[in-house]
Amino acid sequence: MYSKNSGQTPNARSGVLVLDPEGVVVFGSGTGLDTHIQGKLSALWDARGTRPVSAMFILEGTSEPMTVVSFASAGTGCFVLYRHDRGDPLYEFVSSVDFSADILRHFVTDPYEAITVVDDQARIRYMSPVHEKFFGIQRGEATGVDVNAVIENSRLAAVLRTRKTEVGHVQTMRGKSRVVSRTPIVNPEGRLVGAIGQVMFKSPAAVEALGEEIRRLRQEISFYERELPRLRGSTQGMESIVGESDAIKKLKERIKKVAPLDVSVLLVGESGVGKDLVAHAIHQLSPRGHKDMVLVNAAAIPGNLVEAELFGYEGGAFTGAEKRGRTGKFEEADQTTLFLDEIGDMPLDIQVKVLRTLQDGSFQRVGSSTQRRSEFRLISASNRNFERMLTTGDFRLDLFYRISAVTIRVPPLRERLEDVPMLAETFLERFMRRHNVQGKYFGPRVMAYLQSLPWPGNVRQLQHTIERAAIFSEQNEISCEDCEVPREVGSGADLEELSESFGETARSASGFSLGEPVGVRQAKSRVELDMIREALQRFDGNKKKAAEYLGISRSHLYKKITEFDSSLR
Ligand SMILES: Nc1ncnc2c1ncn2[C@@H]1O[C@H](COP(=O)(O)OP(=O)(O)OP(=O)(O)O)[C@@H](O)[C@H]1O
């Protein structure tokens, strides 16, 4: 029940409504005089026995939503009302957080967030209990008193004058130094309504400790900034190519010779031999080495996107294109090195366009007729047999001449088995460092065993074998059994069986040398197909895992799948 004698709706934004135990209006002001609001609050108040009234809530169904703070004492319902527009952060906060009152209570009472609130006349309106205790005053004793009469060295009055926030100031109070912040509060209409003072840190020492931490972190950052070029060098330069065999020594000599010359280099060799590392080393040692090398993997880009990826495109050139267009790899590589990996997988129509760019450095973005220019050094790599592709017409001879001013063959691991121990130790050490593991080492017969394997997946396969062994070895000592290569992938025994049936040696059976008899090639394809099918089944079609298991790159696996596509389906 509510009183009929309430006035008419005023134009106020806030108000107060006090109801007696029967729901009769005892007092109303501002929006508290709105009869509609009175009716709604009275109904809530009547139902308090079954549904307790929240300390803070949003009153909907009125001309504008109201934020209501309720205080109940001795059966009297006291409601403080604020009219808020939707979208107002306070409205959003109260309507979406049903424990909003508890949060506000936390802010006004939490000892670590202790606050003092003053009005626009610098009179204290609220002081957190912890502040009152600090100043030795009773609960509410300072309310209404000028802040300067209560808090020494207060600058809240000054902040009201300047309207400028002060953060991190040291203030001495009762002989103690505190780091404080002072913030003027302006309401949505732009009127200055008061200010809040807050202790941020209990002592300048806490700030000093924070400053010290920042200084330490800065030092750490500058250490890494200094170290980065060195680390980059060691992970991407010549140092990353592990091995001391004659074959590797010769390879490094060729890299050193060719790096400073601005000629195109073609890297050939089986999958996993380290062509990528060689490309990085050449770039690092070249005059362009201070810039990042731009990488393109022709086998990893879907056929219909190769052109856009290489040449870039104008906005809206094709469905799915970015609105503002995009720079292509040729443009990105201006003044640095472009590494075209798996160039043997490039479609013929793109080969023609690439050739044109390589001849005069000019190209057009897809969807544009403007000629652009780029000056870059080209390094290409492929594990494909160019001799065969040139014969079959799958690779253009003129492009081949352009990309292969210098050709470097990266030898397969089986031609430099003396590098196996050093590589294996390096991979084990890297694994332990990366995963924070200690104490793993190879058993006495492991190196000889590893050197007896033909490694058709080359260094990549060796690396994965060592990592697998480090993960699965029960003891710290890694045994030959831990390093077993899955039979399907080509253990020595497999290859021997294979070679016996086709009259080949184990070594050449795992290679891809030119001029193999057709029968062997077909048989190899069959074995490869079986191995790939098996690996894909084992890993539920997950190509990344299948490629790792087979010891080949993912791009090589994709290539093989495309080749075998019809039979795999
Ligand atoms: N000599 C080496 N020393 C240290 N790590 C090597 C060496 N050769 C290869 N690796 C490592 O073996 C893995 C495969 O090397 P990389 O990717 O360079 O081979 P790739 O010839 O480019 O293969 P693909 O033709 O499949 O792309 C990489 O993890 C690389 O770091």
Automatic annotation (TrEMBL):
GO MF annotation: an example: sequence-specific DNA binding
PANTHER family per the UniProt record, alphabetical: PTS-DEPENDENT DIHYDROXYACETONE KINASE OPERON REGULATORY PROTEIN-RELATED, TRANSCRIPTIONAL REGULATORY PROTEIN
SMART domains: AAA (SM00382)
Source species of the chain: Pollutimonas nitritireducens
InterPro entries: AAA+_ATPase (IPR003593), AAA_lid_NorR (IPR058031), Homeodomain-like_sf (IPR009057), HTH_Fis (IPR002197), P-loop_NTPase (IPR027417), PAS-like_dom_sf (IPR035965), Sigma_54_int (IPR002078), Sigma_54_int_dom_ATP-bd_1 (IPR025662)
Assigned keywords, A-Z: ATP-binding, Coiled coil, DNA-binding, Nucleotide-binding, Transcription, Transcription regulation
GO biological process: regulation of DNA-templated transcription
UniProt cross-references to Gene3D superfamilies, sorted A to Z: 1.10.8.60, Homeodomain-like, P-loop containing nucleotide triphosphate hydrolases, PAS domain
Organism superkingdom: Bacteria
Protein name: Sigma-54-dependent Fis family transcriptional regulator
